[in-house]
TrEMBL record:
It holds the Pfam family Pyr_redox_3. This is Putative flavoprotein involved in K+ transport. InterPro entries: Auxin_biosynth/cation_transpt, FAD/NAD-bd_sf. Keywords: Oxidoreductase. It comes from Micromonospora echinofusca. GO terms for molecular function: flavin adenine dinucleotide binding; monooxygenase activity.
């Protein structure tokens, strides 16, 4: 029996949307998931082919359903995650509507929202969960000469496999997991340089014979709030069994300081030399994909949501899921999103039941993103 006569619309049917739907059902709200794609498996099918999870299966599950019955210490493949999410959605028994893209959310006079879809429909909603990820909004830095450069410029979001780059001169930009993994798999086939602003930092995948995620779990580091965490960890680091560090140290995967500009046929390095380059792949991150909230006035001028720990500071009944560091290090991961889902849905439910979000919001200082 639903406590809310109108649905809570969840925009996005990836792991965040599914975790939100589960939390909403537990809170006796009526979730309706609107997913633009054909299946509610998020962006996982579009990640590069060789991707395996950085966490073992035992630390890669959403609430209420173990990853599967296979070896809990293996690192699942991209395809296994897709199958897991498919199963998760099936067992959730929520109203998941695929092929429904949300174009705008507007506030309704008297409370609640109208959610507009690409097909021209308008759906009344008591509340909205923005769970649309960031993969649809890849970030490319502005660099001098890019317009004149005649080679290939690609964000890693559109990279799938190394074979098309065989024999080519390629620069991969970035110092995170994706940059290093992609550069490393290109290295045997192409002439690759990894371009980063500073030397790459590594964090060991295994410590004292256990996966890092075991220690994150038992120490509680996975749940630390962002302000505490950023005092402890000041720089992003690449998870490594030693293979990437060795590849860079041995010159198998050369690293250089980031180039300063494009030239018409390549790049200019900080020492002033120019080099012809066939392709530059930017693994430079993503930004929240929330364009449908722009007219609502819920976003800052740079497109990031005005929120505290995933709860909108501008619109009661609007919450976010899957933001990087939303509440902790694990917010934007399979293992962590469930905790955030319970939290934001509880805040939303409190608002919808008439308690109002004002006092709840005043207890927390704004999150700087
Ligand atoms: C390369 C890569 C590797 C990663 N590896 C790991 C890992 O090993 N372990 C881990 O835990 N995490 C990993 N992550 C982080 C994170 O878990 C994933 O990015 C995950 O896909 C995020 O899930 P999500 O549901 O928040 O977003 P997404 O998976 O991006 O799902 C968002 C969904 O919203 C839909 N959507 C978007 N806009 C609209 C709209 N307007 N209307 C309707 N639907 C919309 C999209 O179609 C999509 O299905 C990785 C991320 C990347 C990019």
């Amino acid at each position: 029996m639903s406590a809310s006569p109108e649905p809570v619309i969840i925009v996005g049917g990836g792991q965040s949307g599914l975790a939100a739907a589960r939390a909403a059902l537990s809170a006796r709200l009526r979730p309706v998931v609107l997913e633009a794609g054909e299946e509610s498996v998020g962006s996982w099918p579009d990640y590069y082919d060789s991707l395996t999870l950085f966490s073992p299966a035992r630390y890669s599950a959403l609430p209420g359903r173990a990853f599967d019955e296979g070896d809990p210490d293996r690192y699942p493949t991209r395809g296994e995650v897709v199958s897991y999410l498919r199963r998760y959605a099936r067992h959730l028994d929520a109203d998941v509507r695929t092929g429904v893209g949300v174009t705008a959310v507007r506030q309704r006079r008297g409370g609640g929202y109208l959610v507009h879809t690409r097909a021209g429909d308008e759906i009344a909603a008591a509340g909205v969960v923005a769970a649309s990820g960031s993969f649809g909004n890849p970030h490319l830095p502005e660099l001098p000469g890019r317009v004149e450069y005649t080679g290939e410029v690609r964000h890693v979001a559109r990279y799938r496999r190394p074979e098309p780059y065989a024999g080519k001169r390629v620069v991969v930009v970035g110092a995170g997991n994706s940059a290093v993994q992609v550069a490393h798999e290109l290295a045997p086939l192409a002439r690759v340089t990894l371009a980063t602003r500073a030397p790459v930092r590594f964090v060991p995948q295994r410590i004292r014979g256990r996966d890092l995620h075991h220690w994150l779990h038992v120490t509680g580091a996975d749940r630390l709030p962002r302000p505490v965490l950023t005092r402890l960890i000041r720089h992003a680091a690449v998870l490594d069994t030693g293979v990437y560090r060795d590849a860079i140290a041995s010159g198998l995967l050369p690293r250089r300081d980031m180039f300063t500009a494009f030239t018409p046929d390549g790049v200019r390095w900080p020492d002033g030399t120019s080099e012809p380059v066939d392709a530059v792949i930017f693994a430079t991150g993503y930004r929240p994909n929330l364009g449908y909230l722009a007219t609502l006035g819920a976003l800052a001028p740079d497109g990031t949501p005005r929120q505290i720990s995933g709860v909108s500071t501008t619109h009661p009944g609007l919450v976010y899921l899957g933001l990087e560091f939303q509440r902790s290090f694990s917010s934007n991961t399979l293992r962590g999103v469930g905790r955030d889902a319970a939290y934001v849905v509880a805040a939303m439910a409190e608002g919808l039941r008439g308690a109002g979000l004002g006092p709840w919001l005043r207890r927390r200082r704004p999150v700087r993103r």
